[in-house]
Amino acid sequence: NAGVTQTPKFRILKIGQSMTLQCTQDMNHNYMYWYRQDPGMGLKLIYYSVGAGITDKGEVPNGYNVSRSTTEDFPLRLELAAPSQTSVYFCASSYLPGTGTTNEKLFFGSGTQLSVL
Amino acid sequence: AQKVTQAQTEISVVEKEDVTLDCVYETRDTTYYLFWYKQPPSGELVFLIRRNSFDEQNEISGRYSWNFQKSTSSFNFTITASQVVDSAVYFCALSEIPSLAGSYQLTFGKGTKLSVIP
Predict the structure, then answer these.
(1) What is the spatial distance between Cα B39 and Cα A86, in angstroms, rounded to a whole number?
(2) B107–A58 CB contact, under 8 Å
(3) N or C, which end of chain B has less CB nearby within 10 Å?
(4) SS3 at position A40
């Protein structure tokens, strides 16, 4: 019953460093998402993917890159970390939406807390 | 543009009291989804409910109930007989109904922190 797994759980970066946040799901979901949650705020969509090889920008994509080479994995890359990227990052996945089924809910990972100093 | 407002930043109740969390939304879409998520102190987001805009029937699940009123653009969440384990941040969210080629792009409120005191 792994669901959506994110690694690492915590990370501290220096300004200008790069890193990749890993996300994997074992539910064979086509749809995957990356959100960030700033203190006291709701989540904002960074990037999403509708299937392997297909990605698109969300509301706040600047400073991030993604790839989706497999159905299971959806890594998020920060190339030049900036203090504004200090946040909690959530990966999520879902079944194909728009089908009218009750399974169309988002499954979230436990989050990665990132600090850029 | 879509917007979700959760006016209550923090609420404290004594165990066994009922509590209602408010959610007001704005959207130009005629059909949409509304969601509630729970974020306990451990940090993960837990899905509670998804409601279609064309289904205004209220829903009850155990101690949880949801009151959807399209006329006032509200989707309020009530916890009956609250328990300490209900202590969490609760998020209301809104999404257009995606096409088969689309996906969810949720707009979240800022959340309401609920503290249930024993």
Answers:
(1) 19
(2) no
(3) N
(4) coil
Is residue B38 within 8 Å of residue B113, measured between CB atoms?
Answer: no
Q: How far is CA B42 from the centre of its chain?
A: 19
Name the residue among A31, A48, A110 with its Cβ closest to that of B43.
A110
Residue A17, min C-alpha distance to chain B (Å): 25
Range list of β-strands (E), chain A? 4-7, 10-13, 19-25, 31-37, 43-51, 54-57, 64-66, 76-78, 87-94, 107-108, 112-116
A2-60 per-position pLDDT tens digit: 789 999 999 999 999 999 999 999 998 888 999 999 988 888 999 999 889 999 998 89
Minimal-distance CA residue of chain B relative to A30: B103
Asked if B43 and A88 come within 8 Å (Cβ–Cβ), the reply is yes
The CA distance from B48 to B57, in Å, is 16
pLDDT recorded at residue A104:
61
